[in-house]
Design goal:
46% of the residues lie in helices and 16% in strands. By secondary structure, the chain is α/β, with parallel strands linked by helices. The protein has two domains: 145 residues, 3-Layer(aba) Sandwich (Rossmann fold), CATH 3.40.50; 106 residues, Rossmann fold. Strands 4-3-1-2-9 form a five-stranded parallel beta sheet, with helices on both faces. The longest helix is centred in the N-terminal third of the chain and has 17 residues. The structure holds D-glutamic acid. D-glutamic acid binds next to helix 3.
Amino acid sequence: MIGVFDSGSGGLSVLKEIIRLLPDEQYVYFADNAFCPYGEKTAAEIRSRAHVITDRLLAEGAGIIVVACNTATAAAIADLRESYPDIPFIGMEPAVKPAAIGTRTGVIGVLATAGTLKGSKYLNTKGKYEDDVKIVEHVGQGFVELVEACDLDSPKAEEIVRESVTPLLAECADTIVLGCTHYPFLAPVIQRIAGDDVTVIDPAPAVARQTVNVMQQRGLLPAPLPEPAGTKEAPKVKLLSSGASANLERLFQTLLIH
Ligand code: DGL
């Protein structure tokens, strides 16, 4: 069983990509929505939540845990790996590398939470590429709240998204990295505002591939993968949350349809 968690519903964008590769697996997803957003919380607070959630996912039977949250990855993954040495943890990677390779203007934009942007993981990655490309950052102010409210394409959502995307376009960014797992839910609005010439990168497919690789290395999956059973059954996902779950269910269903 694969355990996945996030501060809220954002990690469903990662879960979806893992399900695409492993449709026959069983999943347990924990949305920490009573403590959402993580973006402005201290690293110590997030680490403490990550431990509580990990214990819960392990109790549910998870054999691997995907930290489907850039902010929690930045704050807690090193600590989790140390505290649970037998459990593989997969974290989010800011997709600066593919953006740096693909940019034509030499300017890439990164949208993420404040916690992610000041984390050492992001700063190290950025350090590798900033001699070659200009990296412009912006916090997606209000994005997490929109997604948690399931408001993905209203005039209000468009206005809020425009506020954070416009400064990146003003600097001539032609590639925008989504550095928070909530943001892919707003990707259609981001793309509409940015225009067709701008590439929007979601790291979730790469994280899903990494999940498969690590499971194969640990003997949790055969290599190569067998053909999926091809049943039309809905994926087996248990949804858990620390707060209200109505919007979580709604977003999950929305994702499955798209
Ligand atoms: N989805 C999360 C991330 O990837 C957390 C957003 C938040 O709770 O602020 O960073």
